[in-house]
Design brief:
Strand content: 25-35%
Strand order of the largest sheet: 3-2-1-9-10-11
Structural class: alpha/beta
């Protein structure tokens, strides 16, 4: 069995000085084999910090201007035969601008819009990991596990917890777990 750490939307340094030590400790204690960062890394030092714990794979988020040419917008990885698709979830630049315009006019677009975009980008994988919404969710949609760890530093709205995720893979069986910072875990 292997465990993967899942994190997104760290926003260092524009919204936080560093990845919260509690998030790093969750990954250490879980003995993660790898860490998946679903974008909005912002600074290379975040990846260096995560790499000190386990090999880290990241995708480019809408705020990752520094990484414009260094990080892919999406990727597919395989762990013990389980295929994991990763993207940030904001879509194309044009789509992102449209969502921003809607956000200013009517409020935040619904979470489901970003979730279904991420699922549509990876129809042939077992697990879809994405970020962008800062809203933690880990649930099955049909035969795919959808995992958005939320943000360990900036929740989507008041009352939404700061969180990271863990993916557990045992043979072809996979399940996810959200670790709310400062609270117990929720398994799916």
């Amino acid at each position: 069995m292997i465990t993967l750490g899942v994190i997104a939307d760290t926003h260092v340094p524009d919204r936080a000085r560093a990845v919260p030590p509690e998030a790093l400790e969750i990954f250490r204690q879980a003995g993660v084999a790898a860490i998946l960062h679903a974008g909005d890394v912002i600074r290379p030092s975040v990846l260096t910090t995560l790499e000190a714990i386990a090999p880290t794979y990241a995708v480019r988020g809408n705020r990752d201007w520094y990484f414009l040419r260094r990080l892919p917008s999406r990727r597919v990885l395989q762990f013990e035969g389980v295929r994991v698709g990763m993207c940030h979830g904001h879509g194309s630049f044009r789509r992102y601008l449209g969502d921003k315009w809607e956000h200013f006019r009517r409020g935040a677009p619904p979470f489901a819009r970003f979730a279904y975009r991420a699922l549509a980008a990876f129809p042939q994988v077992d697990v879809v990991v994405f970020g962008h919404t800062h809203y933690p969710v880990c649930r099955w949609v049909g035969v795919q596990l959808l995992c958005n760890p939320g943000s360990p530093v900036v929740p989507a709205l008041p009352g939404v917890p700061r969180a990271v995720g863990l993916l557990h893979i045992n043979g072809r069986t996979v399940w996810g777990e959200l670790r709310v910072l400062g609270q117990a875990q929720v398994e799916v």
